[in-house]
## 1
Amino acid sequence: MRQRVRLTCALIDRPGTLLRVLEQIALAGGNIISIVHNREIITSGYVPVSINVEFPDLQSLERARKGIEGVGVPVMGAESLEKQMVMAIVVGGVRLDSLLSELELRGYRVIESSTRGFGESLTVKLLMEVPADKVSELHEDLTSIAERYGALAVSEV
Amino acid sequence: MGRLLAKELMDNRVPNVKLVGVSRSTGYLYRVHGLSPDELRGELWDSEGFTKGSALSLMRERAFDVLVELTPTNLPSAEPGLSDVRTALSNGIDVVTANKAPVALHYRELTELARSTGTLLLFDATVGGGIPLITLRRLCMRGDELLSIRGILNGTTNYILSRMQFEGLTFELALREAQNMGIAERDPSLDINGYDTALKLLILANALMGLEKGLEDVKVVGIAKVTQEAVAAARESSMSVKLIGSVDSDGRLLVAPRLVKANDPLCVHGTLNAITFKFRLARDLTLIGHGAGEPTVAALLNDLHQVVEFRLRGTVSK
């Protein structure tokens, strides 16, 4: 299945480094959508670069990642650009503001939230935008937050 | 279920199989030439020749060829089913069972015992009632890779959640109704707390995906905290709350109430079970069917047919 990802790499500020990274992506079959390369931001001698790429499948992405690291460039992250809308319900005495901020911190964008009832019978309905590669983690994350309040998390399969 | 199966066997649903004994916790009735329908109409202990005590001695004497093990599921001991299955297999007796606990909690030990003694351990009746989940995988999908499993594996909780959704009942009322109708046990904790689903999930994960998981590897959350408000909120978004058991491609086992879209083939109601297998080549395959009771007897009969074929022709899909 096609994978649209944002690869974040830490480049040494030296001519030709970015070209070597792009070669590895091309060799793995990746199709570059856009590149953000800001040489004005240099941290500890490294320039962060974000490359949005479409890979034909997950294996190609892994080949590119290994190839890039093989030429001495650390890959700081590979965030999926595919988003999925996921619904969830939390039942029990959660604090809504804490729940929402914890979800945002973990990378889940809450698009809509509504509540009914209060106290232990509070029901919170959430609609979230979730990176495709994090959908399987959402239930676990939501459950761990809810359980701290003695609440129940019911998320979409 | 024992009586239902006995009746089917008396009606010769499985050629070459004769019912020679019936055992209960208090004792057993055994006739080497076969039991008659009359002997099974009343209470077993009223029958002439009823012997008090355990039928394990019959297994040690190898007084019969196939044991159909139907004792209740007990946690954490898995007894008395575990001792029954161990004794039978050790003495060269094939086993067909609908008892989840021994297979779920001692899968590796029992399958190795069966292999070492040249016996069969068949357990399609432990999961999904009449849906041939084990047989389907082993007979029809042998070349494909099973990547994940997800499903409604417990008819009782599905009934309760369906009544909450369609009739607006509270959890407590829906449970009481299920008990009055004989759908839920007097002690429904195994179903409600999710452990019945967890045991079935373990059987599928270990037997069909080659995993070696124990009950401690399953994250289990039951349905007792599901409120009418939560079910109504799901319904407003064209979803249903269902108790779902799942094994993902990383081998993580989870039982929890989840939201299922109305157009998902898993979204079945009442006492129905539904299971989606995700295969690498065949992709998603969803099976829907009835759980406990008569459908389970159908699975037992099919497993007995397999035993007969194995003993007559030497082949079976294990």
Note: The CA atoms of residues 39 and 106 of chain A lie 29 Å apart.
## 2
Amino acid sequence: MPVQKPVQKPTDGYHDHPVRSYVLTGGRAHPTRNTLRPETLLCAVDDGRELPLGAGRHERALLETCRGTLSLAELAAYLRLPASLVAVLVSDLIDAGYLAVRSGGAHDLPGIDLLEEVLDGLRNF
Amino acid sequence: MASATSEPDALVQDAVVPDAAAGAQHLAPTVVRSVKILVVGAYGVGKTTLIGAVSEIPILSTEETITTASVGVDPRLGAKSTTTVAMDFGRVTVGGETALYLFGTPGQRRFWDLWVGLADGAVGVLLLVDTRRLEDSFEVLDQLEEHTQLPVAVVVNEFPGAPAHAAEDVLRALDLPLDTPLVSGDLRGRAQAVEALRALVAHAVRLRSAESSAA
């Protein structure tokens, strides 16, 4: 039996129709990780791996759009999908190794060093 | 699996999805982190104008749908109604490594919850007020106090014909601490909008410094 690449489980139930969100996400309302925020930076993993055949159109469009770095909110806006739905798709794609979080993990608050850097950046405008 | 059936439903999405990748304006490869500021205020007070004045990308928008069981509605009309809530936002890269996102959030806190994690970890809140309708800001403020400890700066959008108020009077009317930064001006101008952002971030730095020296 040929060795198969692990197929992304949650996509098994996808149907390629613009139907209700819960169908697109295989019935799930919440992403598998809760560290995603609208400003979380994401980028497609460029290792030449193709999405499994069963992957939906939205996942393909999402990866295509995310060839450079974008935030989750931008992805949602470009794909014209609710951010809540995009978060679920993004989680799956991260779990399956197709997408990576570019910004550091979701910490509670930006540190003072970062705030000062932002302030300096704004001063230079 | 996606079947090979015809796709009678695939009208809207087909038209949109292929364009998504082509239109995307990616961040520079040097950008490694992101921060955000919430721009809040009553409808029509100029949130999107302010964001547009500093954003390096055209204003983007994401929508969420709320489904509510309607009360007192004829059941023949259907038990549910849906409302779409939109959030406009923009982006500006600061210092080469950091993307600053400006989310223009609907005034009511209950709408923020539609976007998971929206208020978490924000640098702070720019509260836009129209001095002709200060009372519109009260609900926003109450909910800010109740749910977040985020630094706040006030931005008075100077509409033509609006009465001029001293900063202190506006802060008093809003029941905000008198050391709250207040910037006023015509927010269509980039300089004014940048000034407002700077005032908020500087305030956040001050508050954080005070916190860490108190700890």
Note: Residues 1-17, 70-74 of chain B have pLDDT under 50 and may be disordered.
